[in-house]
């Protein structure tokens, strides 16, 4: 059984107020925590409150708020003074994926925080076992990997480093559940964690199919959207196999595994795009081409779809929360 | 531009009336085609009409019918007499994945069919280039790979063998579009086609994570459901990269591709399950364990989710049908 959390008793610090940091803050405010938001970059302190207020407004129009917007904002302190982190129970670091920047931030957090604070990084690129060596209490350091937008997704990976204590993992998992997440626990600090490894395995094969002129990118996208997309959110990978009956898979594994791409190389098309400074939808130049209007439509569609699929998944509580045992 | 199809002018034959064949027939009846359904196995002729009527009833309660159920059933002939295929424009083979069985069926189809009939196989396991050698007009032989339930999914892979003509591919694609599908075209007849290769790349990595004790099966399922599941149906793989901004991917490809599983081996747990004759949800023994009630709940949830996700995807016509160009 996970520990019961009283949100009002738990104050959370967030360091780094970019897009991700802001949406994490909104998620924490919705959960009822007091939040101390620290801006490590000049200008962030001024920009972040506006962004957070806007996201809260979005939550309001989506019916996610049970109190007036102002009640949530009253729980928030935005500052560039790390000393305000002194009473935080958990401090989340969401700064840029650069080791030296993270290290500098950790030294300031360690100086300010009290002896039982958990420090967590949102990194998806740097090993937790490496980062935790930078703090004086590595057993209380852990990875918490959120998905964007943090207030509207159930995904959360909790990543233990080599020195992370069981108590820290348990406490973090209890908090994640209290935030309405469906946390997964990584017992080993493996590069790419779970979700990125799974996705990059697909990307490797997808690029290989395009490079071999088997199919166009548009057709690969279509295939994934309409096949995998039609059951993924309901059942995931292994339960899908049970559902389809297991016996055919062995023969297909035997035939296909040896034929799949084992490439360790970055695809040429990606090298070219990055050399051309293509930034995707944002700058209208990517694997596809976009007009300004296309880009805006994708932004809007993503925001709407995120809410719709969250809502849809919520309508399947019984099987999704099934407690049947794994072998 | 795809050719315009008048469904009433096109009669379709279906050989093989199992689960898949039956749901394909329902899809064709909904599209307005006359359907000649041939049962190659004793007993199928008697069972299939009942199953088809039941699926039509399901379509009726889901509001998929524009005419009374009886109007669709009036378009259907069920028989074991291959000679009735003589006026079919397209004949779909959906029998068991055994080359010798398919070959016997093709000989009967070829004897009965007229000179411009297209013959299509629903195989996902046997190369089209191999199967088309069994007919006297390989240029009119093609793969059409459906997803279950055929009347409620948009997925369709059209697979050209080495000898398939462009005219056959064009005509098949036009038919697929007229059925409300989102067909992808495989220019090469590659093992596993697109969707299976992508999925088996994920399965290879997923089993490796479980075997290395990084995460449990339940956590892998959760991770895929709540991360990939939250955007997959909207954007697919490549457009997702554009949407997230491309630049971070190159560094991650460089780090992760060489670390991913390159195993060519069937996972031990699968060997064991199949040795124990585990059949998944159907016989309550699989990667997870099930009670009879669990199994029924998964059946119901899948039927409902299939409709819900189909409906949800329909609400995103603009970006999903975007005609922006690929590089």
User: Can you say what the CATH homologous superfamily of the largest domain in chain A is?
Assistant: NAD(P)-binding Rossmann-like Domain
- For the residues shown, what is the average pLDDT of chain A? 91
Level-1 CATH class name of the largest domain in chain A: Alpha Beta
Number of separate structural domains of chain A: 2
**Roughly what percent helix of chain A?**
40-55%
Multimer state: homodimer
Label the CATH architecture of the largest domain in chain A. 3-Layer(aba) Sandwich
> If you compute it from the alpha carbons, what radius of gyration of chain A comes out, rounded to the nearest whole angstrom?
21 Å
Structural class of chain A: alpha/beta
Any chance you could write out the topology, listing elements then pairs?
2 copies of one chain form a homodimer.
Chain A: E1 11-15, H1 19-31, E2 34-38, H2 44-61, H3 69-73, E3 76-79, E4 90-93, H4 99-112, E5 118-121, H5 128-131, E6 141-146, E7 155-159, H6 166-178, E8 182-186, H7 193-211, H8 217-226, H9 232-244, H10 247-256, H11 268-275, H12 292-314, H13 317-320
Parallel strand pairs in A: 1-2, 1-4, 2-3, 4-5, 5-6, 7-8
Antiparallel strand pairs in A: 6-7
Helix pairs in contact in A: 1-2
